[in-house]
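Sequence, please.
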């Protein structure tokens, strides 16, 4: 087994934020993902210094040196509604501030929806939001753009669109922008990885036309409940969806993923009961 495999899940921050570290470690994770605050509220409860200190202590004690924060689903950085857009930029900036404060490697965010205002509009809107959030964050960390599954009006449903967002961000912050690759979302976009790795290879080739494949810094490993190209974001447990165990195994062992030892996190259903089995499954695939 590759001992350095960075593998984890999206853990809860319920109770105290430092409990996320214990939850990840208790599952045997070597990385993890979490929300920066309550994902169902716009108002982020201020972090207590003692909780931040305990969080960082636990990271060291439990050997979890690399983890990621996922922005909640409320912000829409492509919104044509000015009030919502400004609110979303503030949430993105606060997510970045917490990413730095807690020592996370990066902040994952969706590009959102242009709500019918047009893809060109949405791309510029998302790029402006990312630029502004990075510019107001002291010692910023990477914002990792996560592709969407393809629902109507979403921005970033193709990797060519993520390239366009990257190209439109300010030159001074481009070095802080990367990509989070979600196997379910990309499969739903039409980058089929069920039979072979051609869909992933196509995605990497498209990224090479813009931001570059090396910008992929984080993986969400999920099966897909719906067939490739349907544009439906519905995660399935590993091996129980339309990608299947063999497709996901090939993906985990793809030279690009293995050689870079990309951190991998699961966002699959029924986590408390399924994650121990699924984590063991991925470790076995990587042997």
């Amino acid at each position: 087994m590759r001992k350095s495999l960075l593998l984890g899940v999206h853990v809860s921050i319920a109770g105290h934020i430092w409990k996320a570290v214990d939850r990840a470690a208790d599952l045997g994770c070597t990385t993890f993902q979490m929300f920066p605050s309550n994902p169902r509220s716009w108002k982020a409860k201020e972090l207590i210094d003692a909780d931040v200190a305990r969080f960082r202590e636990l990271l060291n004690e439990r050997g979890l040196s690399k983890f990621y924060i996922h922005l909640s689903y409320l912000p829409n950085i492509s919104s044509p509604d000015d009030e919502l857009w400004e609110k979303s930029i503030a949430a993105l900036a606060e997510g970045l501030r917490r990413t730095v404060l807690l020592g996370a490697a990066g902040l994952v965010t969706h590009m959102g929806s242009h709500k019918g205002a047009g893809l060109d509009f949405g791309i510029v809107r998302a790029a402006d939001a990312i630029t502004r959030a990075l510019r107001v964050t002291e010692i910023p960390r990477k914002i990792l753009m996560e592709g969407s599954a393809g629902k109507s009006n979403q921005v970033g449903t193709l990797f060519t669109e993520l390239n366009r967002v990257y190209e439109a961000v300010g030159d001074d912050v481009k070095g802080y922008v990367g990509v989070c690759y979600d196997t379910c979302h990309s499969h739903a976009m039409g980058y089929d990885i069920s039979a072979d790795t051609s869909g992933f290879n196509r995605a990497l080739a498209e990224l090479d036309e813009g931001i570059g494949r090396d910008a992929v810094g984080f993986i969400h490993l999920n099966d897909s409940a719906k067939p490739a190209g349907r544009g439906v974001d519905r995660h399935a447990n590993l091996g129980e969806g339309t990608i299947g165990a063999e497709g996901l195994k090939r993906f985990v062992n793809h030279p690009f993923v293995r050689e870079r030892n990309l951190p991998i996190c699961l966002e699959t259903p029924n986590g408390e009961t399924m994650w121990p089995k699924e984590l063991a499954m991925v470790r076995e695939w990587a042997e």
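The mean pLDDT is 96.
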